[in-house]
Amino acid sequence: MGAGASCGAKDEKGNKIPDGKELSLLIARKFLGAEYEGLDFRSTCDLACNQRDVGTVQRFIFETLNPFQPAHFHKLISTFAWAGLAGTNYDLIVERAYPAAKSPLQKLVPNTKDGDGATDRLGDRSVLYVKLHGCITRHGETAPPLIASTEQLISFRDGREGQFATFLEWAKTKTLIFCGYAFLDSNLRMLFDEIIKEGDKRPKHYIINKGLRSAEADYWRDRRVEAIDASFEEFLTRLTGSVTFLRDTFGFIKCEALKLDAFFVVLLHALECADYLAEGAAVHFNLAFTLRGPVAIDIRM
Fold it and tell me: Which of 62, 71, 98, 256 could covalently link to 108 via disulfide, CB atoms 3.0 to 4.6 Å apart?
C-alpha cells in the first residue's frame, strides 16, 4: 500500500490526509522556505534534516499524520484473510482500521523495524503488516530512521533488511496487489526493479491504479503484472460485493486454507462465473488453485 491507499482518511476537523507531495510541501514550508516547495519528498527530507535534525523532522511528520482516522472503506481491509500486508506509509490508517471494524477476520501485527518482536506475536489468526519505510509510532528513534524513499531503503538497509527480505519472499511466492501507487511513483518502480532482479519464477502480480492509461497497462503487462483501473476504495468495495453476492446467492462459501493469491483469483472471476451458476437449480463445484499450497472453495445452492 502506497500513499494513495490512505486517501479518504480525515482528522476531526474534516481535513484530508496529505499525500507524499503535500507532506513534502508541508516539510519544506516548516523547515526550508518557499523556494524549496517543488522538491521531491526525499530531497525535501534530506535538506530539512540537515537544516535541523532527524528527530525534529520526524516529530513534525508524527504531529502532521497522527490526527487522521480511517475512512469507512478502510475498515473493509479487515474483512479479508490476507496472507500478509506491506506498505510504504508512515501513518496509522490501517492500524486504526482493524480495531474500528465490527468483526475483523485477523489480528493485525505491525512490523515497524527489524527486531521489534512482530513475528513472535503472530498467531493462527493474525496477519503481519510490514511497514517498509517505518512508522510514526517510532518518530523518536533515529536508528533506524523513517525512510524517505525505497531507493534509500535498498541502499541502506540497517534496521530494515529483514523487513525487505520478507517483502521479496512474498513477491516470489505470493500474488501481490499494489494499491495507492501512481505509475510514476518512484517507490513502486524501485520495488519492482528489486522483484525483477529475483527472477521470473513468481506468481502474477496486480496493480490497482485509478485513471490507468493504455500505455501504462502495456508497460506492466510486459512485466507480468495486471493493471486494474480502480481506486483503492473501489477495489475493496468490489471485493466485498463479490463475496456478498456469492454468499447471498448460493447459501454459503466454505474456504479451507485460503491464501491471498488464490483468494484474489477467485474474486476476480466470481462475477464472471455468477451468470453460469445462476442457470442451474442446484450447483456444487470446487475451484482448486495450486499457486501456494492446497486451496478448496465450495459453493453450494
Answer: 98
Residue matched to cell numbers 463479490: 242
- The per-residue pLDDT for 249 is 64
Digit-coded pLDDT (tens) for 81-113 = 899 999 999 999 999 999 999 989 999 999 999
**221: how many CB neighbours lie within 10 A of its CB?**
11
Task: Provide the domain count of the chain.
Answer: 2
Task: Give the Cα separation of 134 and 29 in Å (integer).
Answer: 23
Residue 265 in any domain: the answer is: yes
Alpha-carbon distance 296 to 289, whole Å?
Answer: 7
Residues near 217 by beta carbon (within 8 Å), at least 6 away in sequence: 227
- 139 occurs within a structural domain: no
Confidence of residue 189 (pLDDT cuts 50, 70, 90): confident
> Of 87, 64, 78, which Cα lies nearest the Cα of 11?
64
Indicate if the pLDDT at residue 121 is higher than 70: yes
Beta bridge partners of 72: none
Please state, in angstroms and rounded to a whole number, the distance separating the CA atoms of residues 186 and 183: 8
Residues of the domain holding 285: 247-300
Q: Which residues contact 185 (CB under 8 A, 6 or more apart)?
A: 2
From residue 28, alpha-carbon distances to 92, 105, 131, 146 in Å are 23, 41, 24, 17
Q: Of 10, 44, 65, which closes a domain?
A: 65
Which residue, of 65, 93, 120, is where some domain finishes? 65
Rg (CA), the chain: 20
SS3 296: strand
DSSP-based three-state secondary structure for 263: helix
Q: What is the DSSP letter of 158?
A: T
Q: Which helix (H) or strand (E) holds 201?
A: none
Closest-CA residue to 166 (of 200, 135, 127): 127
Cis peptide leading into 110, omega within 30 of 0?
Answer: no
